[in-house]
């Protein structure tokens, strides 16, 4: 385009010179006849148009040079900004590393919190709800607790991909079945196995049924004393570990450092008639079978209040009016029992109530020692 503009300018200049030469020739010849005067007027008109065109094209060429210079400056600015943006990750990484001592001094572990929130996205839905409720309680009411998501990130990511592929495969199961039918019979089993995606091995306790398979990630909650202290950090009372059983679809909780059994587990009967041995809802019972008995030696148990805290709500197996085998004539006792049951149910939904009961139980246990 640059050549085209300057070529037009050159053509205009050449045409102007030719007309001027013709005019000088006519003037030198001294042609006075009408034909010569008409040609001279026509040449004057042409040269006037050419002069105007020449001036406009010179201005356009000058503007073009200015625009080209602006374009060059903008390209340099964009290149410098791209270079700056590309170097930002390394600067931010260095800044985060340099700010870690300050974060530890002030107790604001922003980097660790970011990593924990990223891990929370890999939690199963019940553990995610439990984690989000406890985080909200901590930040909104300055609850003296600390939360930590522990486990293998790689296994959790692989499990999430496996679940996504499983969900996608459910919708295209018919098509996959057709593809399997098209495989030649001559293919041996090793070739068939190579085509199937490798499954993630989930940790499980030693049992032949696999009912105690747990998700790769778990949530640890450090519960501190809520009594005011003189500027010192409150003492830690207990650490609870929450995990999710994949096949039974329940959330279990146990005390860190306490082996299986009931002698040291103060979480048993934290709420009335909740020993953690009985599966909390019908879905788990149907999945496990009616002959299934929960292992009392496991450190983690599926208490009912944990299910409520994790957003797993369920109806009782029997209506509240029949729960205590109250006689049909005592309507007042029925109403009292129902209200008491509903009150306990509501309390199990409150994070603050659960934490208060855990602290009270632990303090009582320490006082008896």
Overview of this protein structure:
By secondary structure, this protein is an alpha+beta fold. The protein starts with a helix and ends with a helix. A hairpin with a 4-residue loop joins strand 3 and strand 4. It is elongated. Helix 1 packs antiparallel against helix 2. The protein contains 11 helices and 4 strands; from the N terminus they run ααααβαααβββαααα. The chain has a 4-stranded antiparallel β-sheet.
Topology of helices and strands:
Elements: H1 2-29, H2 34-106, H3 110-120, H4 125-141, E1 145-151, H5 153-171, H6 173-181, H7 189-195, E2 217-224, E3 236-245, E4 250-255, H8 282-288, H9 304-309, H10 331-347, H11 351-368
Helix pairs in contact: 1-2
Overview features:
alpha+beta; 369 residues; 57% helix
Put the structure in a nutshell.
This protein has 369 residues and is α+β, with helices and mostly antiparallel strands.
Query: Helix/strand-derived class?
Result: alpha+beta
Major beta sheet, specifics? 4 strands, antiparallel
What is the overall shape?
elongated
Helix content range: 55-70%
Strand order of the largest sheet: 1-2-3-4
Q: What would the average pLDDT be, to the nearest integer?
A: 78
Runs in which pLDDT lies below 50 for 5 or more consecutive residues are 178-198
User: Over the alpha carbons, how many angstroms does the gyration radius reach?
Assistant: 41 Å
The number of strands is: 4
The helix/strand series, from N terminus to C terminus, equals HHHHEHHHEEEHHHH
Residue fraction in strands? 5-15%
> Kindly, what is the distance between the CA atoms of the first and last residues, rounded to a whole number of angstroms?
93 Å
- Compute the number of helices: 11
